[in-house]
């Protein structure tokens, strides 16, 4: 999995682009730690990074929604529903699930988050400036 902000994510709105970069930066940190075979007892730290990612996503969505309102974006409400669904989904995940599958479990969550962000930026955020 490659977790990196790409030029094609660019909306040309500096504040939002910076926040999108930061989401990838946080997710990348969780992934690096997950893949670090030399680190033992890393799961609490990974869970903490995923919590940080969720908190930052909440902050970022508020900021993006404020931007959409400021330009009178006509699909504001349906876009906000997508944000709310995502937060609800990742809030309902039990990150503290501890069993022999924990590494796989955290990897699946991270993949879900990164794929969602990727598709959301390319499919929905880009429409804001289209
Ligand atoms: Fe968005």
Walkthrough of the structure:
This protein is mainly alpha-helical and 130 residues long. It has one domain: Up-down Bundle (Four Helix Bundle (Hemerythrin (Met), subunit A)). The longest helix is centred in the middle third of the chain and has 28 residues. Bound molecules: fe (ii) ion.
Task: Indicate the topology.
Layout: H1 14-35, H2 43-70, H3 76-91, H4 102-128
The protein binds fe (ii) ion.
Residues 64, 79, 83, 120, 124-125 line the site of fe (ii) ion.
Q: Profile the largest sheet.
A: none
Give the CA-based shape: elongated
End-to-end CA span: 29 Å
Element string (H = helix, E = strand): HHHH
Question: Count of DSSP helices?
Answer: 4
State the helical fraction. Answer: over 70%
- As for the CATH topology, it is Four Helix Bundle (Hemerythrin (Met), subunit A)
Give descriptors for this structure.
single chain, 130 residues, mainly alpha, Four Helix Bundle (Hemerythrin (Met), subunit A), elongated, binds fe (ii) ion
Short note summarizing the structure:
The protein is an all-alpha fold. The protein has helices spanning 14-35, 43-70, 76-91, 102-128. The two termini are 29 Å apart.
């Amino acid at each position: 999995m490659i977790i990196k902000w790409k030029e094609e994510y660019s909306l040309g709105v500096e504040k939002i682009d910076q926040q999108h970069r930061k989401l990838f930066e946080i997710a990348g940190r969780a992934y690096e730690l997950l893949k670090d075979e030399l680190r033992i007892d890393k799961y609490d730290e990974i869970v903490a990074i995923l919590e940080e990612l969720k908190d930052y996503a909440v902050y970022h969505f508020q900021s993006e929604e404020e931007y959409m309102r400021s330009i009178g974006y006509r699909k504001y409400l349906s876009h906000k529903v997508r944000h709310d669904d995502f937060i609800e989904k990742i809030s309902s995940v039990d990150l503290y699930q501890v069993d022999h599958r924990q590494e796989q479990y955290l990897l699946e969550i991270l993949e879900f988050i990164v794929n969602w962000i990727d598709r959301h930026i390319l499919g929905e955020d880009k429409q804001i400036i289209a």
